[in-house]
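Researcher: Excuse me, C-alpha cells okay?
***
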Amino acid sequence: NIEKVPKHVAIIMDGNGRWAKIRGQERCMGHQAGAETVHSISEVAARLGVKYLTLYTLSTENWNRPSEEVAALMALLMDSIEESTFMKNNIRFRIIGEIEKLPEKVRLRLNRCEENTSNNDGMCLTLALSYSSKWEITEAFKQIAKKIEQGSMMPEEITDETISAHLSTSFMPDPDLLIRTGGEIRLSNYLLWQCAYSELYFCDTYWPDFKEEDFYKAICDYQQRERRYGKTSEQL
C-alpha cells in the first residue's frame, strides 16, 4: 500500500559483529558487510517514497570498543560515503551527534558530503554518529536554559515543541517506524524523545543479512498497525 509508506524510518543497525563472528571473521568484516546493506536499503527506501531515513551508525558508548575496531569503523566511514549514489538517487545526506569527537579527516569528509548534497530534495539520509539521545536532550536543555538566562524565553513558555526545536533532529518529523535488527529488544539511547509514539519493529536478522524483502516485511507490518496516539479506535 503506497499510501501508507512511513514518512520517516529510523533504524538501529545491529548484529554486524555477531554476523562476522559466526563466520569466523574479524568484527570489522561485519561492519564492511553492514555498509553494503546501508547502500541497498537507502536505495530501496528512496524508491518506496520514504522521506527520511535515520541510521544509528555509532553511539557515544561505541567509543569504548577496542581501538582497532573504532579505527576500522572510521576508515569504513571514509570509504563508504558515496556521493555519486546520493546524487544519482537525489538523496540529501545529513549527520547528527557529537561530530567534534570524530577524527578531523572524517569530519571534513562528512561535512563536504552534507554541503554537496544540500540541494537534493528527495529522501534525507541521516547518520547518527557519536550519538546519544541523553546527550542530545541534555544539550537541548542547556540551550533553553541559556535563553532563559538571557531573558529571551520564560520557563512557562517551554512546550514539547520548544524541546523538539532544540534537538539535533529539529529539521525532520519524528520517526513513524523504528526498526531494530539483530534480535535485541531495546532502544539503546536512540531517539528517545522522538520515538514516543513511533511504531517499533524488532527482527532477529543481523544487519548485513537485512535485505530488500526484510525491509518490505517491516513496512507491511507497520501498515497493519493502527496508530492511535493515546486515543481509542473510535476517536480516529
